[in-house]
Amino acid sequence: MRVLGVDCGTEYTGYGVVELCADGKLTCQTCGAIKLSHRDPMAVRLARIFEGLAAIIREHQPEEVRHRGSLLRGECQVGVKAGTGAWRGHAGGVIGGT
After folding, report:
1. 54: CB partners within 8 A, 6+ apart
2. Closest residue by Cα to residue 5 from 87, 95, 98
3. What is the pLDDT of residues 24-41, one digit of tens each?
4. What is the pTM of this model?
């Protein structure tokens, strides 16, 4: 199974693709960050995230995509959402989540 993990941020959106091999080992296929400028309007930053992630998905063809918020549970998730405000909501929407 191959999974793309994404961590949306205001200046960088981090990503990593990992694969669980048949022997149970987890291997990193790629990782990096999409550089964003805080000076750009939100629409430009969101488009840059979309384009960057679309290219990664085309190249690595993950079976699943997870963003940082979907990995947290309960009170931790509420704290993350409250602390990051609208930005994480908008950026998470680019990858189909909040």
Report:
1. none
2. 95
3. 999 999 999 999 998 999
4. 0.71
